[in-house]
Amino acid sequence: MLSLSSRLVEKAVEQFASLPGIGRKTALRFVLHLIRRDKDSVSAFIDAIRHLKESIRECDVCHNIADRERCDICLDPRRDAEVICIVENIQDVISIESTGQYRGVYHVLGGVISPVDGVGPGDIRVESLLRRLDARLAREVIFALGATIEGETTAYYIYKKLPHRDQLVITTLARGISIGNDLEYVDELTLGRSIVNRVRFEP
Amino acid sequence: MLSLSSRLVEKAVEQFASLPGIGRKTALRFVLHLIRRDKDSVSAFIDAIRHLKESIRECDVCHNIADRERCDICLDPRRDAEVICIVENIQDVISIESTGQYRGVYHVLGGVISPVDGVGPGDIRVESLLRRLDARLAREVIFALGATIEGETTAYYIYKKLPHRDQLVITTLARGISIGNDLEYVDELTLGRSIVNRVRFEP
Questions:
Q1: A96 vs chain B: nearest CA distance in angstroms?
Q2: A82: phi then psi, degrees, rounded to nearest 5
């Protein structure tokens, strides 16, 4: 236990220690750092958090985080609105955006079907996805869900609900060996899948 | 680079990433966590930081952090005000307090003499220490400074300035082998010092 001689410091440490993965020692380092910073800089810190909570909302179309009714991705005319990538959460949007390899739009489910955790099909945003697909024809729907039982179950559930027409291609992320990984560290299932789904060698 | 589709999230991530040891990925985890928390809980977070900056001050006596003119340690009547432990900074006070082994008071220098970093004797709180010792007789002054050239130099500089009288004992932290360390990992200087300063074996 760190014993602090100031109630104010104690309170601030408690608050920082409530952030994920932060213990009291690290929280204290943050607090002592903020004490040393000038007033304006701490105000900027506080304002950023306040604005975040006051103004952040969910995109009406894809459920991504947004500053307005629609998120920047849905509003971007350079994005291909006929390709929809289905993801579990906001972090996944950020991860895929960071690859720089995707120019379509997203649909954030807000979870995956998981009976163990009490998450049923009604708890994730499938209805709004189907309404989107009704309102505007899509060329492709991509399942970018985890390679887990929950991810596969969710993809299968949604797949059954999707409108099946020739113009709509339904795809899923490739499963395979992580780049940089030696074969000896790859599990059998992944290795098996990567043999079945092998692709043309293009050196 | 994480590309975020919201300017508000981007700003908040920037702010959290300004904390020591926090990168953009961890900052984003904090931000997404705060977005999910309810408004009251985020307000409590913000208030703790604001109060910290508005109300925290330096103890008039020992320069520790304080909510009032004097810190809780200086105000505590159970602490022995005739034993003064000299430390470099606030973190050191917290570390020593955490041991639960010390019942005296402190004097926070706010640094150590380090010509390389441009810190001279005038930049640390030596004068206020000497005034304290003039105003009230002390039984013991403990140097709890780092076992570094800077720490030793600072201790020596202050030692020369201290009033030398029979009633005042001047001590320094024991140097020795860290508890839990094997001998093979101990550097020669520390090992040498721990032989010279060996203590009675009391099983």
A1: 9
A2: -95, 0
- What's the Cα-to-Cα distance from B159 to each of A63, B92, B123, B171, rounded to whole Å? 66, 20, 17, 10
Residue A179 has pLDDT above 60, yes or no: yes
ipTM of the complex: 0.71
Q: Read off the pLDDT of residues A131-165 as tens digits, 9 standing for 90 and up.
A: 999 888 899 999 998 888 899 899 999 999 998 88
List, in order of start, the domains of chain A with CATH numbers: 7-40 (no CATH), 80-172 (3.40.1360.10)
How high is the pLDDT of residue A176?
82
Residue B55 has pLDDT above 90, yes or no: no
Q: Chain A: residue nearest B19 by CA?
A: A30
User: Which band of pLDDT confidence, cut at 50, 70 and 90, is reported for residue B203?
Assistant: low
Substitution target in B1, B3, B5 with the highest count of A β-carbons within 10 Å is B5
Q: How far apart are CA A63 and CA A70, in angstroms?
A: 9
Q: Residue A108: enclosing H or E segment and its boundaries?
A: strand A104-108
Q: Give contacts of A29 with chain B, Cβ < 8 Å.
A: 20-21
